[in-house]
Each structure stands twice: as C-alpha cells, then as structure tokens.
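Late entry, evening session. Most of the bench is empty. Finally got around to the prediction I had been postponing all week. Sequence below, unchanged from the version circulated by S.P.
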Amino acid sequence: MQLSKREFIKTGLMSCGLVLVGCKLKMLDGFANVNKKVFNNFKGETMPFELPKLPYEKNALAPHISENTMNFHYGKHHQAYVTNLNNLIAGSDLEGKTLEEVIKISAAEKKAGIFNNAAQVWNHTFYWHSMKPNGGGKPTGKVLEKIQADFGSYENFVTEFKNAGATQFGSGWAWLVLDAGKLKIVKTGNAETPLTTSAKPLMTMDVWEHAYYLDYQNARPTYIDTFLNHLVNWDFVAKNLG
C-alpha cells in the first residue's frame, strides 16, 4: 500500500513520538534504579571507591543549603575523602574490602588515616540522604510514635538533638540511632561513626564548619534549627528504622 506524502510524514511523526515516549519512560525507570542502588557503596562495592551520586540536584536544598556550599562540601571535601581513601588502601590487604569493612577493620587496627577518610566517605553519603528538599518538620507514622515512646515527645527529641549538635566541640556529627531497640541521640567527633558500635544509625547532621559556614557563618544553632525544620528526611529515617 502506498502512502501519500502527507500520510507518510504523519506516520513518521507518530513513530518518533512513540520512540521518544519509550525513551523517556526508560530513562525515568533507569533514574529510579540508580536511586535504589545509591547505597551499593555501603553494602558490597570494593575499591576503587567512587563519589556516590547525590539523591537530588546540588541546588535542590536552597535556600537552606546553597549550591555554593554543595559545590565545596560535596564536590571538594567529600571527593577528597574518596580520593584519599583509594590512595591509602591501594595495594594493601584492605583493597578488596567493602567500605563498611574498611571502616571497622581500620578502627580496630587503629589505622587513623584510613579510618578517617573511609568513615568520612560513609558519613557524608549518609548525611546527604538524611536531607531532602521540602523536608523537616514533625514526622508522622511509626517514626513519630517511636520518638514519642522513647523521648516522651517530639519536642523533647528536638531539644536533645539541638543540644547534641550545638555542644559537639569542634568538628563532628549529631546522630539519631537505634540502640538495643531504643532511639537515642549521640554525637561523635571528627570522623567517628556509630558503625563501630552496636547502634544502628538512622540519620545524621554534619556539624563540621564546612557544612554550614558559607551559608550561616558561625551561627551553628541557626543551621541546626534549619536542618530540623526544613531539611531532615523522615522517609529515610523510617526506611532505616524498618
């Protein structure tokens, strides 16, 4: 059957549209799969480790955390830990280990240089996922119920978490963890992480100055308020809580 010129063009455009729709769906499906795999570096990958992709665009947390901060914090600081770690364990008995294994072994063997960089790779990746655009505020569902059961109220949790972040002297982290079935707030200095303890981390807030100084200067309490009110990813907490 012969097609007229007009019919031929119309058929061709429809075919192209179907192809483009199919490609778009495939891309979206692929993007979802990438997000699901973002923690592979925690679970099974070995060196050379790579800088994990962010779960959002670098400007997505603005105005609370600016793209400028993300360019330095993620693009330079986090990347430097990845690069340093690969260089430190190349050719060693840790070369075939996963990131979590490197952290735990280097902590036990007091290999400070390796531990600091490995833990900071893990801590920062966990931190990025502890935030999301339009996050923060009071959680709902099982997370809120667990917080109320273990802290007495959400307001008590907020007070304790703010205190942990504000009183961590120098650099470090404030964490919400599950320990022996109970929610607890802990703070760690420098690169220290709950991974070396019996506690299970649920979310974290970075209180190293490079996490907030470009946006908040020395006003760490304001950054902490902003983290809780506008950034914390309660969906991530719920997933980790199980």
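Two things to note before I forget:
The domain at 141-241 is CATH 3.55.40.20 (minor pseudopilin epsh fold).
Residues 18 and 209 are 50 Å apart (CA to CA).
Will write this up properly tomorrow.
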